[in-house]
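Running this now, will post back.
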Amino acid sequence: MKGRAISPGRASGEALVSREPLSFYGGVDPKTGMVTERGHELEGKCVKDKILVFPRGKGSTVGSYVIYGLKKNGVAPAAIVNKETETIVATGVILAGIPCVDGIDIDKIKTGDRLTVDGDNAVVELG
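Update: finished.
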């Protein structure tokens, strides 16, 4: 699947998919990588080393620093795939050096799928 490059790099791993937007500030613990947002479909799941797939971010601009904190603490996703990456997630993945591609039809991806994200060429490969 061809998209738009947000942050360079390449990573492979297991997809962790949300159909809901995700807030990193108050929604993901930067020390553990656990999704803590109450009532979110990923609540209680860990993003560490996953290819985190969600439509877009939401919430405070502090979310960018939470993404950076995830990386600094060794609990960041291996890559992020979005339908539309807004500025909070874009800033965070660039600061943290996490590969990110958007413009992807995320409805074709389900949790547990094996993905390769190529942020240099804006490609997400399933399988």
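The longest helix spans residues 63-72. More later if anyone needs it.
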